[in-house]
Amino acid sequence: MAELPSGLLEACVVVGVPSDKLRDLYQLQQQSKLNELPLLEAEVLQVHAPPFVSKETNSSQSIGPAFSRVQRRRSFIKKKRRDRAAEVLPNGETTNRTEASSATEDISVPKDLDLIALPQLCFPDGLQLANEQREDSYHFLVFTDLFGNRTHGVVVQYYRSCLEGAVQNGHRWNSSKSRLYTPFAMCVISKFPYYNALKDCLSCLLVQLRPARQADFEETIKEFSAKLSLVPLPPPGQLHVSFNLRPLNVVLPSREDQDSPVIDIDLHLPFLCFTHTTLLQVLSCLLQEQRLVFFSADWARLTLVAESLLLYLQPLSWQQPYVPVLARGMLDFLMAPTAFLMGCHISHFDEVAAETEELILVNVDDGIIQSSCSETIDLPAIPLAAAESFMSRAECLQLHYDLELCHLGAGTDANALRCQRREWQTRRNTEIQNIALELVVNIFRGVQDFLNHEHRVFNSEEFLRTREPADQSFYKKVLETHIFHSFLRDRLNRKRDTFSRMENRAMTESPRRPLMSDLSRTGYSSYSSPNDRLSKRLGASLPNLDQPANDTVTTISSNRPASLRKITPDVGHGSQLRVKPFLIYFVFRLPEFPPPLAYHYVQNYYSDMVSSLGKAINATPTDESALLARYHYLRGLVNTVSNRRLDALEDFQSLYKTDSDIFPSQMVKSLVDSLAGIIMDRISPQADKRPELKRLISQVKRDQERERARNGNWHEEDAVKRFKLPKKYMQLGEFVKCIQESGIVKDQGTIHRLFDALTVGHQKQVGPELFRVFYTIWKETEAEAQEVCLPASVLEHIEPSECVFKLSSSVKTSRGVGKIAMTQRRLFLLTDGRPGYVEVAQYRDLQEVKVSSAPFLLLRIPSLKLRVQGRKETFEANLKTETELWNLMVKEMWAGRNMADQHKDPQYMQQALTNALLMDAVVGSLQSNKAIYAASKLAHFDRIKMEVPMMVPKTTAETLKHKINPSVELAAPQAVDVLLYTPGTNLWVSVSMGKVMVFDASSWSLTHTCHVGNARLNCMLGVDKDQIWMGSEDSVIYIISMVAMVCNRQLTEHRAEVTGLAVQMFFSQKVAYSCSAEGSVMVWDVATLQVSFKPTLCYKEELWSVCMDSGEVCIWHIKDTTKPYHRVALQDCSGCYCVIKVKNQVWIGGVGRSSTKGKIYILDTERHQILKELHGHNDKVTAICSAEDRYVLSGAGKHDGKVAIWKVE
Questions:
Q1: Distance of CA 1063 to the CA centre of its chain
Q2: How far is CA 1142 from CA 1103, 1177, 1209, in A?
Q3: Whole-angstrom distance between the N-terminal and C-terminal Cα of the chain?
Q4: In angstroms, what CA-CA distances link 522 with 178, 526, 615, 787, 807?
């Protein structure tokens, strides 16, 4: 059976007192035998659930005509028993039950609805008869099943005169004399929390019920329910749905995206109930998963406030039991030992406070929070900086509707006034969501820095060390909660939610590194930065490619996590966080409801809706792709429930080209499965006329096969581990994993060398005690370095981006007494006494580094001697026992600096710094005579300097300007598959399995990372100012929006991997060309994303071709393609992988024959001669692109994985 899309209505349940019992009570009252009106037990009287109509002659159809998944039903047996002949009434008399109608005994209800507790929840104070008419009363319910899935209910209590219009023993009762009123509760149940909309619906129902006769009561409610079952839910995004229920127009607001909740309540209510301080206390208790009980005299207020508070925490999701309304008979639930959030009537406050312990009691009416033991709460507060930012922004909220709109005149149209209020509320809700989201981001900012995605590990201890001391207790509690565990799981799964989008905006708009002046004034321990990343995107920035190499300032750091950087949010209105703007929404109005209980009328209604949606699609401009997607989605829903399955699939297929983010995968799979059960002879002819449907069906089946193959690893997406020190000896593989999980370093080559260093002189395994000592020393050294506070007189001599990573003890030197400081650029002496600065050397100026000895009395003390270019005197420092270590570290930094300068690759400097710091930790942890020898295993660049000549060919050195390492955060280099430069904005780099990294072209720093499919990308093309097309091995062309930086459109017409893309203006129309491996070429209208069957090729005189298994360039005449008219042999080349024309040159990327290193050949297009041969990569050159004909960028295979930037002459 196909899965039906969820509609507005799951069920409508009527709860009250059975008519026979009311009749008995009424007789007793007329006979004055009732001293007081009794409190009665409510029962389920009616249940109305879809489907309400079906085609009798086609009962085998697997999809019914109603927007609901509820198909299977069961029997609900009332509590009264048929064989119970008598029942005791409140006054002690008995009454006969034998005449009770058997027709009311069994009530058919949806299988997944549990109605046992519903009567109590509909009348949480009990069902009380009245002698006079009372006002209607609304409240809201939340039901949670065993799997945590929530269903929502809106209840109205409506008083009606007993036995109104009823006939008994041949006499009609006179209702005017009865003066006995009984409440009925109508509960509308929905899968989604449309509280305001369903409240409006019930208000319209009461308008119909009041004049209705008792005989029409049930039929009126059934017809009302059937109408609601015809209402489709709006798709995520900018399209709402409205319908007329008379006398009101009801609007269903859409979700922001697939993962966002429906918001159909007034989010400002908690701000009216609590002060900002109290509100933060309540949110703190929720984040710490306390046992919370809300109290109010208004049942509706309990749910609305609780729902609002949980929405404030989005995207964190409350995982514990949640019952916002507890009936008087359910107070035992408060004895549960686990965390929970529940709500009670204020009359139970004293009882609950006295009989239960360790509860947090929240009086919503008075805005007070306290514990059950005292009038205060003894729990850690939300971090101060985040709280101050929240309160400063909350002060600016305008929460009073009448105050803001008092300049307007009185409205005469009720629906217009409701629309005006709804717009005001939507703006308030957006503002409050922004403020709440910023609070969450400020609390949990930087969590991403302590995650290891490969091993799914969170380093909680290091994360805690970055928090302010006063906030430690708060984070210790929060980190142990289910709500935070779920949040971590989403981060590890790289979920793109509101948190990640806001944090990324803050990250990309913030300085990449702290200024040294800021660090020195406050110390590392209190420095705050909006992105707070010490090791991210290191060495990836060189803003000015034209400056001389000697003047290059490289921003780098050790390859450590930001473990000791104190992270605090930006406070006040100067925050770097950018909130989402108020969006413009469209409203689709449903046709007028038909008689909802007649099949052919319902089918005509669906046809009218499809027709209206078709008109809306035709009237929407093609550039409004997001709105078009919502119309197609909605029409797909309607076609699904009206059994037009192929039409539904065609609508869902259109989402690939408009917005694939809302593609309903499960629904489409269900549709495809349902088609498999129908005779294919009936389906195939229709599908043949729609080839895109055949492709969609084939793709769904392939996806199902892949999903079944992945089912064995489903648990990996849920796993979240905390980093723990090892408890057993580790071989190399275990050691690599442990080091990567710890966040010390990710590069496998470096970890292998570290393993060799720690296992010198004994068996090749690292014990838990040795690792603990090494890890502790690494962290302590890191902390000591970050405590360094430099005076202003020192800061003026060093670059703003420099940080001190190692500081010696106080020693005697040839330039005075003090401590030697090591930064990423230089060594300097921090003199004792009044701190002063004495330049020792920049690494690139060193000429010799050696260990010597200085005489002291009858002893000779080891010393370090440095000879610096341009200075006659030698710098000597009596470092004593530290001499050998400093000798190793300085040599490694010197070698790294030379390699970075020669290869224009700042990554070498970062790696050298990491090696030097690891040497320091190894020597400190081994404490033996072999410690220096062990540390020398990490002298990687110094060894390369001694063993292999580092000279770069002159031509290469003159042309090469800079290098970028896209694999800097990865355990091993990844091959660069495709490169694309978009003028004046970004460099797009594709690496393995669809990962795309975006670098800012002004600084070459990483700004965004996204995943496009799960296969290798073959080509990229900038089609216009907002579209990047990417051709993949999985035969799909993915389209990324450069503005929103999301991939939500796809072209799926190719049947094999897409191998090439091009774009051309054809008259006033822009067209794009794509080709695939099986030889097909498609021409696309860029505006409509439709295939055009009028290929127009731009002919040139020559065609240049290269081959992956040949070092020869073939040049063809376009008019004669029988054979190339000229060939150019590339010297020492075994194959070519990419080619591009820049000005009057052709650049060809390949691989050498005598070695596996990459080469770039530059040829003259007119003379067909080789102009230059460049050597800049350690693996084959796999991708190449041009940056405005000023630079050429090349990317290499996985043994190199870097991007080189070359100057074009």
A1: 33
A2: 15, 20, 10
A3: 67
A4: 80, 6, 63, 9, 18
Residue the block writes with tokens 């909350």: 394
Q: How far apart are CA 786 and CA 806, in angstroms?
A: 9
Cis peptide preceding 51, ω within 30 of 0: yes
Q: Which of 81-95, 123-137, 537-551, 1081-1095 has the lowest mean pLDDT?
A: 537-551
Least confident of 526-535, 927-936, 1102-1111: 526-535
Q: Which residue is it, tokens 């109508």?
A: 186
Identify which of 47, 55, 30 has the alpha carbon closest to the alpha carbon of residue 116: 47
pLDDT of residue 129: 84
Q: In what order do the strands lie in the sheet with 1081-1085?
A: 1058-1066, 1069-1076, 1081-1085, 1090-1092
Distance in angstroms (rounded) separating the CA atoms of residues 939 and 912: 8
Structure tokens at 771: 């690792």
Q: How far is it, in rounded angstroms, from Cα 641 to Cα 1132?
A: 66
Predicted confidence band at 557 (pLDDT cuts at 50, 70, 90)? very low
Among candidate residues 471, 611, 483, the one with its CA nearest the CA of residue 528: 471
State how beta strands 340-345 and 291-296 pair: parallel
Q: What does the H/E/C string look like for 296-308?
A: ECCHHHHHHHHHH
Q: How many CB atoms lie within 10 A of CB 652?
A: 26
- Pairing mode, if any, of strands 875-877 and 859-868? antiparallel
Q: 964: closest CA among 513, 539, 554?
A: 539
Query: Of 63-67, 476-480, 678-682, which has the strongest mean pLDDT?
Result: 476-480
Q: Rounded mean pLDDT of 461-476?
A: 91
Q: Strand order in 451-452's β-sheet?
A: 451-452, 457-458, 721-722
Please state, in angstroms and rounded to a whole number, the distance separating the CA atoms of residues 450 and 225.
51
Which contacts qualify for 1189-1196: CB closer than 8 Å, 24 or more apart?
Answer: 1189/1142, 1189/1143, 1191/545, 1191/961, 1192/1140, 1192/1142, 1192/1147, 1193/979, 1193/981, 1193/987, 1194/979, 1194/1147, 1194/1149, 1194/1158, 1194/1160, 1195/975, 1195/976, 1195/977, 1195/978, 1195/979, 1195/989, 1196/975, 1196/976, 1196/1158
Give the other-Cβ count within 10 Å of 331's Cβ.
18
State whether residue 954 is helix, strand or coil. Answer: helix
Average pLDDT rounded to a whole number, residues 968-972: 80
Instruction: Return the number of other C-beta atoms located less than 10 Å from residue 841's C-beta.
Output: 20
According to the model, what pLDDT value does residue 170 have?
45
Mean pLDDT of the chain: 82
Average of pLDDT values for 143-168?
78
pLDDT: which is higher, 176 or 740: 740
Nearest one of 490, 381, 486, 494 to 443, comparing CA atoms? 381
Question: What is the pLDDT at residue 284?
Answer: 95
Q: Supply the DSSP string of 362-400, one letter for each residue.
A: EETTTTEEEESSSSS--SPPSPHHHHHHHHHHHTT----
* 530 pLDDT above the threshold of 70: no
Q: DSSP letter string over 8-63?
A: S-SEEEEEE--HHHHHHHHHHHHTT--SS--EEPPEEEEEE-S-----GGGTT-SS
Residues comprising the chain, all counted = 1209
**pLDDT-derived band of residue 103, with 50, 70 and 90 as boundaries?**
very low
The amino acid sitting at 1077 is: A
With H, G, I as helix, E, B as strand and everything else as coil, classify residue 1151.
Answer: strand
Q: Are 616 and 253 in contact (CB under 8 A)?
A: no
Lowest-confidence pick of 33-47, 422-436, 813-827, 1050-1064: 33-47
Rounded to 5°, the CA angle 666-668-671 comes to: 110
Q: Which residues of 1112-1146 are buried (b: 16+ CB within 10 A; e: fewer)?
A: ebbbbeeeeeeebeeebebeebbbbbbbbebeebb
Judge whether residue 519 has pLDDT over 50.
no
921/941 Cα distance (integer angstroms):
18
**Rounded Cα distance, 96 and 627, in Å:** 63
